[in-house]
Please model this.
Amino acid sequence: MTRPMLAGERLWLRPIERRDLAAYVAGANDLLVGGLAGYTEPTGAGAAERWFERANERMGGGEWLFFTVCELGDDRFIGTTWLKKINRTDGNAELAIFMDRGHQGKGWGTEVQRVLLDHAFGEMRLERVFLTVSPSNARAIRSYEKVGFTREAVLRKTRLHRGVLEDDVLMSILRSEWATQSRPRSWEIGEPDE
Model:
């Protein structure tokens, strides 16, 4: 499977590489980055290496698309985003994201979502993208709602966090909802007029 590189106005997404693992581990272990993104236990270099090997197998099989987020003109890791549980039969996938501390609260995550959703609904022709988020992560929920995700349900006691079972909010966006937003969409660029 081809691993795409995608671009937005200020950033680009490239396939994750082994050289990104140290920054990935630092983010996953940071309570204000990985903790809010749902990481429940510390990750070490060995665990990250094993995860990277499994992730490459899943990406090669088309089950995942895992990206490193970089600022335009640079290739340093500033965050990650991925589509996992890609189900081409039913046309859906789960989105996940985290941005490093220096790129939180400044619209970077919102732009990442827009770039990834554009690819999911355009090139991949998915019909639904969903995610789960902690109800206490208000900044993430605002960002998801800004790009068009809507709340579907509260999943009660679904995630163990610091010894306590917590709820998650299930959110989704449909291709038809994405298509109504007035913004450029990559799959429309360069298509011949019918």
